[in-house]
Amino acid sequence: MKVIAVLALFVTLFCQGYSNSLDSCQGRCGYGTDSNFSCQCNASCERYRDCCSDYAEICKAGATSCKGRCGEKYNSQNKCHCNSKCTKYNNCCSDYTDLCDSDGGGGGSVITDAEIKAVSETLYALDSNKASASELIIEAQALVPDSQTSSQTDLSSQPLFRYLDEETLFTRPTYVALLAVLDNYQRMTGQAEDFSPEQLAEQEAFVKETMSNTELGRELFAFLYTKGVYASEEEFIQDLKMMWFGLYSRNNNKMDSSGFEHIFAGEVKGGKVSGFHNWIQFYLLEKRGQLNYYSHSFNGPWTTYPDVMGMQFMWGGYFKQVGSAVIGCSPEFDFAIYSLCYITRPGKQCRLSLGGKELIIQTYTWDKSFYGEGKKFIGSAFPATPRN
C-alpha cells in the first residue's frame, strides 16, 4: 500500500507541475506546511529547520525575482510577488511580466501594450484643458548632448517660460486643485511632512477633481474597470489617494516623502534635486526667481502641447541633471498617464502613444514600505527620452 500511495502522490505532483522532486521549492514559496513534501518553503521552515535545500536560493535570495515562483501563494515575507493578484496590488517582482505573464497585467485580465497605447491616445484626445500655443510660449534655447547634462553650466540667458496665460489656465478647476497641493511640501528629505486637515482635504480634492470631474479621468477609470483592476470608482479613487499621497521615508526614518511630492513638487536629497517632473511647478518656481533654467537635452517630436522636454536647472542651489516633464498638458492628463503607467506597468517602462508618436514613461515602485494588503507606493515616474 505504501508503494501505491507514493506513486499516487508522485502522479498528483507531476500533474500539478511539481515534477522536479519532493524536496524542491520550485513554485512553492510561501505555501503552508505540507506533510506530503519532504521539506518546506515558508517562513517557518527556518525555525523548524525543515527548509528545502533550494529555499534560500529560490524563496529568499530569489525573493526579488519570479524565477521558479510563478503562481505561488501570497507570502508577506517576500519583497515582491509572482501571482495573478500582484498586478492589482502593484507588488509584482520586476521580472513578473517577462517570466509569468508575457503580456503584462493589470488586475483581473491581461492589459497589453497595444491597449495601453490605445487608451493613452484617447486620453491625449480628451485633454481639453491643455495649454494652447497662444496660452503658453517657451524658449528652449541651449540644447546639450547627454554627455554634458552634468556640467552645471548655464547656457540659456532667458527663462524657459516666456509667457503663460495664468488668467485662463489657473482659474480652471484642475489647475486650482493642483496649485493648492503643490505648496504643502518641504523639499528637503529627512524632514517629516505634517499635513493639516485642510491640506489633507486638498489632496482628496485634487484626486477627485482630476479623476472624477473630468471626462479624461472618467475614461481612465472606465478602462481600468473593464479590465478588472478596480471594482468601483470609490476603490479607484481611494487607491490613487494612497499610492500617490501615502507617506514613506526616504531619509532619516522620517515620513518625509510620497509619490506626489517626489514627481510633482520635487525634493532635495543628497545635495541634489530628486524627482521634479511637473511643468507647472517648474513655471511657478522660475517665475519667483527660485529656479534657473540652464539647458535641455531632449525635446519631443510634438509640435503642439503637450510636448516633452528634458531640462537641466538649478533649484535654490541644488542641481537637476535631467528633469524631464510633459510640457503644457493639463494636471489631469499628467496625473492620468503616470497613474495608468504605474498601475499597469509598475517598476517598468510603459509605452504610450500621443498623437501617433511614442512616449516612454519609466516607473519605479517603493519597496521599503507598503499600504493595504502589501500594495506598493509610487517611488518615481518620469518621461524617458521620447521616440520619433
Automatic annotation (TrEMBL):
Main location: secreted
Cofactor(s) annotated in UniProt: Mn(2+)
Key words, A-Z: Disulfide bond, Endonuclease, Hydrolase, Lyase, Manganese, Metal-binding, Nuclease, Repeat, RNA-binding, Secreted, Signal
Enzyme class: lyase
Enzyme Commission number(s) from the entry: 4.6.1.-
GO cellular component: extracellular region
Compartments where found: Secreted
Record-linked SUPFAM superfamilies: EndoU-like (SSF142877), Somatomedin B domain (SSF90188)
InterPro entries xref list: ENDOU (IPR039787), EndoU-like (IPR037227), EndoU_C (IPR018998), SMB_chordata (IPR020436), Somatomedin_B-like_dom_sf (IPR036024), Somatomedin_B_dom (IPR001212)
Name recorded for this polypeptide: Uridylate-specific endoribonuclease
Organism: Seriola lalandi dorsalis
